[in-house]
From TrEMBL, chain A:
<dbReference type="InterPro" id="IPR014718">
    <property type="entry name" value="GH-type_carb-bd"/>
</dbReference>
<dbReference type="GO" id="GO:0004565">
    <property type="term" value="F:beta-galactosidase activity"/>
</dbReference>
<dbReference type="InterPro" id="IPR004199">
    <property type="entry name" value="B-gal_small/dom_5"/>
</dbReference>
<dbReference type="GO" id="GO:0005990">
    <property type="term" value="P:lactose catabolic process"/>
</dbReference>
<dbReference type="InterPro" id="IPR011013">
    <property type="entry name" value="Gal_mutarotase_sf_dom"/>
</dbReference>
<dbReference type="InterPro" id="IPR050347">
    <property type="entry name" value="Bact_Beta-galactosidase"/>
</dbReference>
<feature type="domain" description="Beta galactosidase small chain/">
    <location>
        <begin position="18"/>
        <end position="317"/>
    </location>
</feature>
<keyword id="KW-0326">Glycosidase</keyword>
<dbReference type="Pfam" id="PF02929">
    <property type="entry name" value="Bgal_small_N"/>
</dbReference>
From TrEMBL, chain B:
<keyword id="KW-0326">Glycosidase</keyword>
<dbReference type="InterPro" id="IPR050347">
    <property type="entry name" value="Bact_Beta-galactosidase"/>
</dbReference>
<dbReference type="GO" id="GO:0005990">
    <property type="term" value="P:lactose catabolic process"/>
</dbReference>
<feature type="domain" description="Glycosyl hydrolases family 2 sugar binding">
    <location>
        <begin position="45"/>
        <end position="229"/>
    </location>
</feature>
<feature type="domain" description="Glycoside hydrolase family 2 immunoglobulin-like beta-sandwich">
    <location>
        <begin position="231"/>
        <end position="335"/>
    </location>
</feature>
<dbReference type="Pfam" id="PF02836">
    <property type="entry name" value="Glyco_hydro_2_C"/>
</dbReference>
<keyword id="KW-0378">Hydrolase</keyword>
<dbReference type="InterPro" id="IPR006101">
    <property type="entry name" value="Glyco_hydro_2"/>
</dbReference>
<dbReference type="Pfam" id="PF02837">
    <property type="entry name" value="Glyco_hydro_2_N"/>
</dbReference>
Length: 321, 632
């Protein structure tokens, strides 16, 4: 394997940290507070930097038991929580944040075995808490994403907890190894394990658009797109990106809309034209409930209390995968 | 003209059928065995299709006298029968749940409640919200129906109807979901006949039909003319019992013929057979009533969900010369439903209900569903281990009962009754103006609904339970309904959830403890504390939107408590209408409030395992898993 001895090329920019290798180019933005560019074989995978997500579009049961009213501050946190700290480690050693003039000491020939960049987001809740998202990149282009939510007493229960990737164009579809259908922690017994292919980005057509499309207990998921926003790229050959479990399975949804877009629609036809792919990895998922739709809460074991910590991780597969 | 139509009937809860023929079994009959095999009866002339129609927003604006053949019908348009007036472009679509459709527009209290002695004249006959559909159909009797007694059958007209033939008043009916039948013979003429039906959207029946659904009106089920031979089986009551040994069938049959059948010299030949053997072949002289009792069927092949085995009954009416006048087929299922040690058992085994509540719904046709819809639904049932259905909250189309017989679907056959708007107010139980309650003026109407349901469907093996209605509180009148069912049928159990709101009646109403939406913990408390009746969830797992989580907390009870016998998921299919979007022109599903209809309960009608267009919701695989686990 030629790449086993290859080094990761590191660009200590004035506003970004670039990590390059054969077939990949990643740019982490200090200003945007996250991974700004994830490029594989010349194709961009990110439209905006990935952000922690704390909201799900209110289900009818959430509305009935007033969960969204009680947890409303997480909606603001989902939309607005800023990045408040960034830390960079090269080959496991934390370095002084390499922004100007600190980065004047670097060259155009910097390499490393692996680099970790950790973003801390402070929630716009009262009280506030933090969530950290670390990206560790090696020379194969594999990105290990590790997230940690700091529990904080006094916060309402979480509607959701994850990291949301907004991709520039709508996917042709996705495949995954996991459970059939749409599953939630309290509704996954009927999900059959297997390999599944989903065409397009279906939004489950609940009469009032709401949280949908969750896939629990997933080993891997591959998103395939065919077009980019790059005006100089007329190519329409499909290209793919794979998310893999890191140790334990992960949960995800792959939809054309954010939770807020779904939240605002009263009918599916009011949703925007299909333009993006919103791929979200969920570290924790609240159940959907089902006793009634006018007051009964989701069963207690499927709640997400916010006074405890949550950790989750997953891998964005390297170029050799 | 003996009788004149009177608008006051709309206001009077004591007038709910005028000149209507008595309810009877839903059997078909044929002129020949060949007709029977082809299921095409030459005694029947369908009146489905295009009718002439005029719409009036109020009773006062209706075309008075339109039933007269010499009236001016130039302003009449067309409408399809069966169908809803509101989906034909007349009258506003409206969805509301508990609150009555006049909420915030008109103040109404049911007649004779709160001490009223006036009967509240004019409440509906002068109701500004009482739209009227005037229907006309001309027909010429087909040759095969001539020279017979001819009756007309309306399978469903919402919510009150007056009928005329050739200008003569024939009769009046309420109860939107039961068949209404009238004798047309006195007024038939050779050549063209003019049938006129005046359909009112509201009457006192509106208080009894407050189901959580779109509020439609019109002739929404089929209409047909049916000729009867000179000797005719009006009614049959089959009792296909199973003896204690659970291996011997006990067949009983009572036929009701016309009163003068005994003078006709006719003979009644009764054959009961299975595919390979004849169990009964007996010919007796015709009488007004013919009974056959206790015909043993050794080693009887029992009917159940997994093996819905049916025997074939064939009743032939032969005239004095031995010529066939009519032949009546009916499928017979031998099964035994009973309470043993407070557990409901079918054929000796504990019954587990993997059920759904099913509204009749079609996204394009509303409640005017098709046989194709029904067949699709049965496929879904089969694929996902659904073994039981509650006909919420009214009798369904007749075909559905036959299909459930053949497909082994256990039916909780509910009559047409729901009055939650008279006692569920702002989340509280507040029954001060409840109907039917214990009001004598309302008793006849609700017992009539029980009677219609029982008489029509009493021969279906699929029907295991009679259900007294939904969410109507409890009083003497519902107790009278329960009594009606038990007095007429020793072979089935009764169901009614509403008695749990007024437990003073629990010894008189419902053979089972039925609740809706109780959390599993509350059900355990019931079952742990000396329960007197087996427990059934008549509605549970409210599948509104993205829901149906935690189903195992209910199914676990099946393993833990013999008296927990499962339930019926709420519900089978979303109620939404496929409408062309006013912006894009594309077909979209619309729900309450989307038609400027107020007060509305908006998306609350979307609780199905299927979307309104019959595509499955993701939750269905979970139902399939758990119902499959208990599919015994």
């Amino acid at each position: 394997m030629a790449n086993t001895t290859a080094k990761l090329h590191v660009v200590y920019g004035d506003g970004t940290l670039g990590l390059h290798g054969e077939g990949f180019q990643y740019i982490f933005s200090y200003e945007r507070g996250g991974l700004e560019s994830l490029k594989r074989d010349g194709k961009e995978w990110l439209y905006r930097v990935p952000k922690p997500t704390f909201w799900r579009a209110t289900t009818d049961n959430d509305r009935g038991n007033r969960f969204s009213e009680k947890s409303a501050m997480w909606l603001g946190a989902d939309l607005f929580s800023p990045c408040t700290d960034i830390e960079v480690a090269v080959n496991g050693q934390v370095i002084t944040l390499p922004i100007a003039p600190e980065n004047n000491r670097y060259s155009d020939h910097e390499t490393a075995d692996k680099v970790t960049i950790r973003f801390t987001y402070t929630t716009t809740t009262v009280p506030a808490t933090t969530m950290t998202v670390s990206y560790t990149v090696d020379a194969t282009g594999e990105i290990r994403v590790q997230a940690h939510f700091n529990g904080q007493a006094g916060l309402p229960e979480l509607p959701a907890l994850g990291i949301r990737f907004s991709m520039p164009t709508a996917a042709q579809g996705f495949t995954y190894r996991g459970l059939s259908g749409e599953t939630y922690p309290d509704r996954m017994a009927g999900g059959q394990p297997g390999d599944y292919q989903v065409t397009g980005l279906p939004v489950t057509p609940y009469m009032v658009p709401q949280e949908c499309g969750m896939h629990m207990a997933t080993e891997r998921a591959t998103v395939t797109r065919a077009i980019t926003l790059n005006n100089a790229d007329p190519d329409t050959e499909p290209f793919s990106l794979t998310f893999k479990q890191a140790g334990t399975p992960f949960n995800f949804s792959c939809l054309p809309y954010t939770a807020e877009e779904l939240e605002n629609a009263t009918h599916i036809e009011e949703l925007p034209l299909l333009r993006r792919t919103v791929f979200t990895v969920f570290g924790a998922v609240r159940g959907v409930g089902g006793i009634d739709s006018w007051g009964a809460d989701v069963e207690a074991k499927y709640h997400l209390p916010a006074d405890r910590d949550y950790d989750f991780e997953f891998v964005i597969a390297g170029t050799q995968d | 003209m003996l009788l004149q139509a009177d608008l006051k009937w709309l206001d009077d809860p004591q007038t709910y059928r005028v000149n209507q023929l008595p309810a009877h079994s839903d059997h078909h009959y044929y002129r020949t065995v060949a007709e029977m095999q082809a299921q095409q009866s030459s005694f029947v002339q369908s009146l489905d299709g295009t009718w002439q129609f005029a719409f009036a927003p109020t009773p006062q604006e209706r075309p008075v006298g339109f039933e007269q053949p010499d009236a001016d019908h130039q302003n009449f348009g067309d409408i399809q029968v069966p169908g809803h007036i509101e989906l034909a472009g007349y009258g506003q679509l409206h969805y509301t749940n508990t609150l009555y459709p006049w909420e915030g527009k008109l103040y109404r209290r049911p007649a004779y409640t709160l001490g009223d002695t006036t009967g509240m004249p004019g409440m509906f006959s002068a109701g500004p919200d009482n739209t009227v559909g005037a229907y006309l159909k001309t027909f010429t009797l087909s040759p095969k129906l001539r020279d017979h007694r001819v009756v007309i059958q309306f399978d469903g007209v919402e919510e009150a109807m007056y009928l005329w033939l050739n200008g003569h008043f024939v009769g009046y009916a309420e109860d939107s979901f039961s068949q209404s039948e009238f004798d047309l013979t006195p007024y038939l003429q050779t050549g063209e006949n003019l049938l006129a039906v005046e359909v009112f959207k509201r009457s006192t029946a509106a208080f009894l039909e407050d189901q959580d659904f779109f509020r439609f009106s019109g002739i929404f089920r089929s209409v047909r003319l049916v000729a009867q031979p000179t000797v005719h089986v009006n009614d049959l009551t089959i009792r296909a019992n199973v003896l204690d040994d659970l291996t011997t069938g006990d067949f009983n049959l009572t036929l009701a013929l016309n009163d003068d059948a005994g003078q006709s010299g006719a003979q009644i030949k009764t054959i009961l057979h299975a595919a390979d053997r004849v169990l009964l072949n007996q010919t007796v002289p015709a009488q007004a009533e013919v009974t056959i009792q206790h015909v043993p069927v050794p080693n009887v092949h029992l009917w159940d969900h997994h093996d819905p085995y049916l025997y074939q009954l064939q009743v032939e009416v032969l005239d004095a010369e031995g010529h066939l006048l009519e032949v009546v087929p009916y499928d017979v299922g031998f099964r035994r439903i009973e309470l043993k040690d407070k557990v409901m058992c079918l054929n000796g085994h504990r019954l587990i209900l993997n059920g759904v509540n099913r509204h009749e719904w079609d996204a394009k046709r509303g409640r005017s569903v098709t046989v194709a819809d029904m067949q699709y639904d049965l496929q879904v049932f089969k694929q996902h281990h659904i073994n039981a259905v509650r006909t919420c909250h009214y009798p369904d189309q007749i075909d559905w009962y036959y299909l459930c017989d053949r497909n082994g679907i256990y039916m909780m056959a509910e009559n047409n009754l729901e009055t939650h708007g008279t006692w569920q107010k702002m989340g509280a139980v507040e029954p001060s103006d409840n109907v039917p309650g214990s009001l004598p003026q309302w008793r006849g109407a609700v017992v009539d609904r029980a009677r219609s349901n029982y008489q029509a469907f009493k021969n279906h093996p699929a029907v295991l339970f009679w259900s007294l209605g939904n969410e109507s509180y409890a009083g003497d009148d519902i107790a009278a309904m329960d009594r009606y069912y038990h007095e007429h049928d020793e072979t089935r159990l009764t169901h009614y959830e509403g008695v749990c709101r007024n437990r003073a009646y629990e010894d008189q109403i419902s053979d089972m403890e039925s609740m809706m939406y109780d959390p599993p913990k509350v059900i355990r408390e019931y079952l742990d504390n000396d329960p007197q009746k087996p427990f059934v969830n008549c509605e549970y797992m409210h599948d509104m939107g993205n829901s149906l989580g935690g189903m195992n907390s209910y199914t676990d009870l099946i393993d833990q408590y013999p008296m927990y016998q499962g339930g019926f998921i709420w519900d089978y299919i979303d109620q939404a209408l496929l409408i062309n979007d006013e912006v894009t022109g594309q077909p979209v599903l619309r729900y309450g409030g989307d038609f400027d209809d107020r007060h509305s309960d908006y998306e609350f009608s979307g609780d199905g395992l299927l979307f309104a267009d019959r595509t499955p919701k993701p939750a269905l695989q979970e139902v399939s898993y758990y119902y499959g686990k208990y599919d015994r």
